[in-house]
Amino acid sequence: MSKAHEGLNPTESGNTTRLNGSPVASENISVTVGAQGANVLNDFHLIEKLAHFDRERIPERVVHAKGSGAFGELHITEDVSAYTKAGLFQPGTVTPMLARHSTVAGEQGSPDTWRDVRGFALKFYTQEGIYDIVGNNTPVFFIRDGIKFPDFIHSQKRHPGTGLRSAEMQWDFWTRSPESAHQVTYLMGDRGRPRGFRHMDGFGSHTYQWINEAGEAFWVKYHFKTQQGWDYFTDEEASAMEGKDTDFARRDLREAIERGDFPRWDVKVQIMPVAEAEGYRWNPFDLTKTWSQKDYPLIPVGYYELNQNPLNFFAQIEQAAFSPSNLVPGIGFSPDRMLQARGFSYPDTQRYRLGVNFEQLPVNRPICPVNSYAHDGAGTHFFNAPDQPVYSPNGVRGQGYLDDGATSSSGVTHGPATDLYVYPDAHGTDLTRAAYVQHPEDDDFIQPGILVREVLDDAARERLAGNIVRAMDGISAELAERVFQYWTNVDPWLGGRVRELFS
Ligand code: HEM
Residue limits of the Catalase core domain (predicted)? Predict the structure, then answer.
């Protein structure tokens, strides 16, 4: 089943039903006390109909609220396996995807043609998990540190007192944040008013990391080049369009796909060897800078096509949850502070906007298995079989997604966090999953042993052993052996006493 059709109800004829599936007596006439009297509380359909309607709206996105999207496929025509092992970028691979384009500052009903940066969010449903590239139609951004983002957005959206947008606030922020100059130059130019979503390029904007099969890492920037050609509105044309069609860009994309004129973008990348980052003439992780294409030319990767309109705008576009934190093996982050802040902010806002189980919604659900110990929470739809373990580490034989049933975090070092990024740089800031630093005499059992031997008296030790044994009631003989060993490690006397009392 295609992503666009996941969740689609079969079309039924016949009576409308209540949400419990039972037939509705009337959609048009409510139950009253006599023909002229009041409504009644147990007209359940009336109550349910109003109550559901009352809750139809959810918070709009805090930014990029006005947008539109479509489904399609990514096609890889070139071989970039020397740079990344990511399955979706291997030659010949076709990956289903969703794209959403948006303005930034406007609300849901605002005109598509306002001068603004355009969002360029791509969601790839890969066999290794969902991969999102959440970029813009510009290669840079207004700021270079995520801590400034709420301030930046406050200066661009409506003032809470007046409810009005303010050029005063916008320019005040920009001129006090000189790092904005590159992006404001793009914004005030043609890219600030593209003629719809089909006629603009897209950028991942940030520097990301690609990692190949041999474990070699590269810094990468994404470029998406429209095959429709660039086009833009002048201020006069855009103002006229605002009055004529608020939804110009949404309509343009939708109608193009309806008539079979499927828009395409070429996918290209710039690649920088990790070793060159330190010495490059600009900080390659600074989001207010581009990399010169003379230094790092565009390398073709493939193209994508949008060819399927959403079947339900709310379910598939409004509820779509894009996030830079959605990575897959072979692709990582970088030390870009903006990117790092975003990795937190998107799933955080989505838990608020859509609920904690937003990843279970069809449009956000991966097409590969999801093996997770996360469970419960509002809107739980999927669940694991009852014989599956529900925590880690666990000793459930032959089960457990991640666990070998033996190890825990004590003394375990996994090494570089290659799923985030590797950057063995001169500053010693490479990410790692290393054991907690242990001092020479530390181990997990020294202090509980001292507690048992030197703090407790004989009576307290005896009560401790008894309490332990009663708490072990019902466990398997195999697990009991592990428990005896555990207490023997704490204190040999205690281990022996627990064994004695348990048997
Ligand atoms: C630290 C800086 C940033 C923060 C904290 C931030 C935060 C957010 C939040 C909270 C949303 C709403 C997400 C949702 O409700 O699903 C959003 C949407 C979006 N942001 Fe950012 N953002 C930042 C920078 C950027 C940058 C640099 C870009 C582009 C390069 C960008 C592109 C987008 C796009 C395209 C969307 C709309 C995604 C969609 O279509 O659903 N943002 N951002």
Answer: 17-400
